[in-house]
Structure formats: structure tokens, C-alpha cells
Amino acid sequence: MISIILGEPIECGVEREVFEETGVRAHFRGVLAFTYDKNFRFEHGDVYFVCLMSLDENEKDQK
To answer: Domain boundaries in the chain?
Structure first.
């Protein structure tokens, strides 16, 4: 599970987190689905997104 900074655009946060967790650069293409959990863990509820990503063209050459 990744964490997007409050106020950070989804596309930026997802690209950043994919790179931080995998070392692979990928581009955000869209949101496929989302849901939420209203049971607050902290001060805010949780929102979950399933995103479509594509591999950066430069990554294909490196792998």
C-alpha cells in the first residue's frame, strides 16, 4: 500500500510511490476503480485507488 501526501495530485503521488517502491519509472494513465474505508485509522478515512500505469519508454531499454 502506498501513501499519497495530503493535497498531492493522484497522478504525481502514484508515479512517485511506484518509483520509490520498485525503482521503475511508470506513467499514470488513469484511475480504473476506487473505494473508501470510513473507519478512521487516524484523523482521516482511507481512500483506495486502482490505477492504470504504463512503463516509461526509457525503462524498456534498461531492463
So the answer is: 10-62
